[in-house]
Amino acid sequence: MGNATVIYVAVLESLHMLLLLYILYCKIKKFIKEKNLLDFSFLLVVVLTACLGVYNAYLNCLFASRGHIERVYIGNIEISWIMGFLCSALYFWFLLNLLKAKRWYSLPFVASFYLIIYGYFTPAPLLFQIYIAVTFIPGSIALIVDAIKRKHGVSFSIGVSVVLFLFTEAFISPQFFVLYYSLEYVLLIVLLLGVTGWWDRNVFYDREYANKIKNTWIAHRIGS
Amino acid sequence: METEALWLTIRSGISLLALGTMVGFMVARNVRQYQDAKIWNWARFFMIMSFFASALSHIILIGYHSLGIDGFESLIGTSITEPTVNTILITTTICFSSMFAAYINGWDSLVLLPLFIQIGALIFTFLIGTINFEYYYIMVFGVLSIIALWEAGIRLKDNMAMGIGIMSTLQLIASFGGFYFQTALSLIGITFGAITIMGLFRPYKEG
């Protein structure tokens, strides 16, 4: 791999890492301020996604500089798969949370636990991919639909970023180098907009409700 | 050895009788309640399933020790660490007992957890065969369910949870002793269970 490509990949991935860490910082700050339980589960998702993203970015940098990478395995399972399973368990949990299926809450975690143990003994990438697709896709679609209904920016951005992530994975080969990175950045920007509250302020802005508050406030001021 | 087999038969026979009475009593109550008020009592259903699995396990023990049916030997195995039908029945007993404990404590999100883990353990043990998860399941969930039953008994002042908790504790203590100690405590435990189910054990009058 040429020097220019190495520098290019390193810059892109460093930016990627910085963005992820910034998103994480915003989320933690918001959680400390509001201390909301649902926010905490979102925080966990963001932490796991960020860890996964930073780890992958690090691997990509290594690959660009050395031409090969030594992946870390626990038994037969790669460490990024374990993080992927935990992420998918949380997404699946979101889906169940939205469906208000309280008694099924433990299913995603039990399933992920057994899959991790299975992966420890036997390499089964196809099974893992199927599981992740089955848990991520319905979870993220339900999250987007619910976010639009409830006008919730963070869940919307998480849902969209997961769909984009799955889409990005299809272009992981070197031929689609530019497209892959462009999609990754779109994904991060969507997530960043959600975490900083941009969606809430500009897209899911309830004009009628805001006007109502404003009118009440003006009426109150005139009255006094 | 002959005496031990005789005692084992007596123990299993009395246990089976008590468990049969308990299951019959609870099924009749549940059906009557459903007919009267159209309410299905899930707590009682979990206990019915738990006692039913335990009764099946005792049937296997009687079949082997008293009737000497050859095929039953493979169903029992030599110890609990072996994944056999008897082990599955013990696991099922503990599984439903844990579900009962979670349900009665109001831990809604944990009610199905023992069942999911049990299904996973079964798949792992019998289809994949790498670890005998059944054995670990019995150890971990056995203790956890007893703690949860005591918790429900003391915190919620629930007579049934308290009674089942005492019965399970006696059974657990029994498993650590020698044969005669085991037999004596098992019999005391199962008799206590039957008394509880019939509503005669009422430490909390309002419970």
Structure, described:
The complex is a heterodimer of chains A (224) and B (207). By secondary structure, chain A is an all-alpha fold. Chain A is 82% helix and 2% strand. Chain A is built from nine helices and two strands. The mean pLDDT of chain A is 77. With 207 residues, chain B is an all-alpha fold. Chain B is 77% helix and 0% strand. Chain B is built from eight helices and no strands. Classes of the chains: A mainly alpha (224), B mainly alpha (207). Chains A and B meet through helix 4 of A and helix 5 of B.
Features:
heterodimer; A: 224 residues; mainly alpha; two-stranded antiparallel sheet; 9 helices; 2 strands; 2% strand; B: 207 residues; 8 helices; globular
By DSSP (H or I, 4+ residues per run), the number of helices of chain A equals: 9
Write down the secondary-structure element order of chain A: HHEEHHHHHHH
* Rg for CA atoms of chain B: 17 Å
What percentage of residues of chain A falls in helices of 4 or more residues? over 70%
Name the beta content range of chain A: under 5%
Q: Count the beta strands of chain A.
A: 2
Spans of chain B of at least 5 consecutive residues whose pLDDT stays below 50 are none
Strand content of chain B: under 5%
Number of helices of chain B: 8
Biggest beta-sheet profile of chain A:
2 strands, antiparallel
SS class of chain B: mainly alpha
Average pLDDT of chain A: 77
* Helix proportion of chain B: over 70%
What's the total number of strands of chain B? Answer: 0
List the helices and strands and how they pair.
The complex is a heterodimer of chains A (224) and B (207).
Chain A: H1 3-34, H2 37-66, E1 73-74, E2 77-78, H3 79-98, H4 107-121, H5 125-150, H6 153-169, H7 177-196, H8 198-203, H9 207-223
Antiparallel strand pairs in A: 1-2
Chain B: H1 2-37, H2 42-65, H3 72-76, H4 85-105, H5 113-128, H6 133-155, H7 159-174, H8 179-197
Helix pairs in contact in B: 1-2, 1-8, 2-4, 4-5, 4-6, 5-6, 6-7, 7-8
